[in-house]
Design goal:
seven-stranded parallel β-sheet; alpha/beta; 17 helices
């Protein structure tokens, strides 16, 4: 392995690297850093966990060390697909640029735009941004990209998955053609290849490992269930967490809604777990990640987008609650463990509905995971019961509400202003009440012509589960008005 001191980095940058405890470069760092220092474009193909963040951060620090940024005209631009990955790049830049006068700003959603604009007005050397927030500020006239000397695109294939390619193309066109470009991707689908051919100038292609390979340091397991029922899957997940020596672990789900459900289920059963996905507040996401990195949080339940590219070096276990739809995502998921020579374990829960997705994963990794049955659990008896079965108090409540709903539907043909509903329960034992139409004028007469005072005051009531809202009731909670004699 090559030492950093032989890659052509400046003494100041080498000291910053030494302060982090690293002495030897990873394969992609060894090959990319000298090319980037020479001012040439780089096309790097490498999986997450290979050290590519330092592969572009270190030469960027050296190349920008001389010169000064002007207001609203950054000198370098780093694009990342997610807020977490952008924040990670900013942390890396902070470590390696501490011996210089370079400054930078992190442009991501979910945080104060005012602070970001103030930093841009002062002048920054490096913008580290997600495409959406960058273009938002550009369209507001808060920056110019005509001074960009060096541009980095990280996790390009994830940009494609998230629909950012049109934004990336636009950003490329806003920067000068003479810029240097460092472009990194774990895979090279046709759309990414077209992008590199259009915007990179005779790049040096660096491929440090075959795409979609799994590390030998990871022991892979598969647990097959006889049912696709969500409750059975959650039970299986808890059993897997309990049986392993889990120091910390990441649980992957295919959908953001499932992330919340699984995290809540783990919490209810006494596990130290928290969710992370794109719909959560940015400050909460950053705190959750900080807790997980520090060891204060044991289980992180995540979507693929939220966890892609996160640098968490010591993850002992990965749990695939869902088999990923794309086989490549399986490789990226389990790549969170078994890093830097450490041993790791990966588990995948498989149901009868996952056959096609599982076949794609097995063909890609060319390995047979170890079968791990969960003996002693009767999954058939723990399935979620259908809504129309069972007579529990909750089930009866739903049934009764359904009957009331069906009774109300008989009046739905009338205009909303004249909906009239009788108390069905009272009608069986009492004469049919007279129904009054809501008044449209100031007349004090009822529909029958009698003075209003001759009738008991009709007090509209609204049936709202969970408490009374008075007259200020949300539209989706309104119920038909019942007039009582």
């Amino acid at each position: 392995m090559t030492e950093f001191s032989k890659l052509g980095l400046s003494p100041t940058t080498l000291q910053a690297v030494a302060d982090t405890g690293y002495t030897t470069a990873t394969p992609i760092q060894e090959q990319a850093i000298p090319v980037a220092l020479a001012g040439r474009d780089v096309l790097g193909i490498a999986q997450t966990g290979t050290g590519k963040t330092a592969a572009f951060t270190l030469p960027m620090v050296d190349r920008l060390a001389s010169g000064r940024a002007r207001a609203r005209m950054p000198r370098a631009l780093v694009l990342a697909p997610t807020r977490e990955l952008a924040d990670q790049v900013a942390e890396s830049f902070a470590k390696y640029a501490k011996g210089t006068k370079l400054n930078w700003v992190l442009l991501i959603g979910g945080v104060s735009m005012g602070d970001q604009i103030a930093a841009l007005n002062k002048g920054v050397d490096v913008l580290i941004a997600t495409p959406g927030r960058l273009l938002d500020l550009f369209d507001r006239g808060k920056m110019l990209l005509t001074g960009v000397e060096l541009m980095v695109v990280d996790e390009a294939d994830r940009m494609l998955d998230m629909g950012f390619i049109p934004d990336i193309e636009r950003i490329f066109k806003l920067t000068p053609p003479r810029r240097q470009t460092l472009f990194f991707s774990a895979t090279m689908p046709p759309e990414i290849t077209r992008l590199t051919q259009q915007f990179l100038k005779d790049p040096t292609r660096i491929e440090v490992s075959r795409p979609a390979t799994t590390a030998d340091t990871i022991t892979q397991h598969v647990t097959r269930l006889p049912t696709s029922d969500p409750k059975a899957k959650r039970t299986a997940l808890r059993a897997l967490v309990e049986r392993g020596d889990v120091q910390n672990g990441i649980v992957f789900c295919n959908r953001k809604s499932e992330v919340d459900i699984v995290a809540k289920s783990l919490q209810v059963h006494g596990f130290d777990a928290a969710p992370i996905h794109g719909d959560l507040d940015q400050s909460l996401r950053m705190k959750t990640l900080a807790d997980f990195r520090s060891g204060a949080l044991k289980l992180l339940v995540a979507s693929d987008v939220a966890a892609r590219g996160l640098d968490i070096p010591a993850v002992s276990h990965v749990f695939n609650y869902d088999v990923p739809h794309h086989a490549d995502d399986y490789v990226h998921r389990i790549g969170r463990t078994g890093r830097a020579g450490r041993l790791g374990e990966a588990f995948m829960i498989v149901t009868p509905a996952d056959d096609k997705s599982l076949d794609k994963v097995l063909k890609l990794i060319k390995k047979d995971p170890v079968e791990l049955p969960l003996d002693g659990i009767d999954f058939a008896s723990i399935q979620d019961r259908p809504r129309d079965e069972g007579r529990s108090s909750r089930g009866r409540g739903r049934s009764e509400r359904g009957e009331r709903s069906r009774a109300r539907k008989t009046t739905e043909a009338a205009p909303l202003e004249s909906v009239e509903v009788q108390d069905v329960a009272a009608s069986a034992a009492a004469p049919e009440p007279k129904v009054e139409t809501p008044r449209r004028s100031r007349s004090r007469k009822t529909a029958e012509g009698r003075p209003a005072a001759a009738r008991p005051a009709a007090k509209p009531s609204v049936e709202v589960r969970g408490g009374a809202f008075g007259d200020d009731v949300p539209a989706f909670l309104r119920r038909p008005v019942i007039f009582a004699d």
